[in-house]
Amino acid sequence: MRAAVMRGFSESLSIETVADPACPSDGVVLRVLACGICRSDWHAWTGADPVALPHILGHEYCGEVVAVGPLVTGWRLGDRVIAPFILACGTCPDCRAGHQTICATQALPGFNMAGAYAEMLAVPHADANLARLPGSMEPALAASLGCRVTTAWQALTGRAALAPGEWLAVQGAGGVGLAALLLGRAIGARVVMVDVVAEKLAYAKALGADAVVNAAECDAVAAIRDITGGGAHVAVEALGIEATTLAALRSLRKLGRMVQVGMPAGDHLNMHLPMDAVYSGQLAIYGTRGMPGWRYPSLFGLIDGGHVDLSPLVARRVGLADASAELRAFDGPTPPGVAVITDFTR
Question: Boundaries of each Enoyl reductase (ER) domain copy (predicted)?
């Protein structure tokens, strides 16, 4: 099969012909229909979240089942499916309690196993993780759900319990930030988007943000407090850096909830947080990472019911050989929207 192989950190990916993946006994092999290019891939590509080389990146994917292991009961050849980027075992106590994202033996395509920057992908634990794609959903949109949208949905509904009428402040107008905007609006919240790139903020405003704040031009915390009449009820940090984490916490009103969605890596593994604000404001801080596969139906229901249009997230459909350029773009301010690999022949 054709794959984009990482042979060095921060180096261009090598387009190669590699062996087709073997089918796990409890899993399937997918013909990859689309794969998103995510900032988390960039963390691995730069070595901030190191992986063993050589390696194939890619954790936001959907595909068609082309091989089925003998222990799989729920899936057949030709099924169009999606899976969370955290593939849980399905049998441990955490999985049985519904907390698959903290499974101790989780498999992570693109991180601790080969990912989906390739024509095919092996997916273990298929019965515990796969979800059937709605027939009306195009592959590029489905792939964009795989990390950014599902993580935002879990953050807003599974962690912070965002309610209609509340103010949501989102730090970072990238893929996960825009997903939080669209989903927050669908829930009935009012949304303030914060970034330092005017183009991204204009895009967020066009997608329905109630207000936008350019943190490069003003005191973002003061601006949020003024816009929301005292502070946001919920804040989402979508970049994984100290400055925006501090701003997210300080932008909350008393009894507010902050969700750390962005993955801290490199110099941001350890942060100095304003615990005085946490204490005096009686704030809640939630971490979140991914979404369990069993929660896909709630998200699909929202989309199929016409309550949210996520198609504006997909800004660029690219070929496999374009992945290197898209990864390099994360070195600086990236353009609005999400890039998705939809052509594995070029």
Answer: 8-341
Residues 164 and 283 occupy one common structural domain: yes
Question: Over the chain (346 residues), what is each successive 10-residue block's mean pLDDT?
Answer: 98 98 98 95 92 96 98 98 95 96 96 97 97 91 89 96 98 94 97 96 96 97 98 96 96 98 86 93 96 91 90 93 96 87 96
Domain that includes residue 194, residue range:
149-287
Total number of domains in the chain: 2
Residues 239 and 337 in one domain: no
Could you tell me if 299 and 228 lie in one domain?
no
- Which among 82, 79, 124 is positioned nearest to 105, based on CA atoms? 124
Phi and psi angles of residue 101, each rounded to the nearest 5 degrees, phi first: -70, -10
pLDDT value for 299:
92
Where among 240, 270, 287 does a domain terminate?
Answer: 287
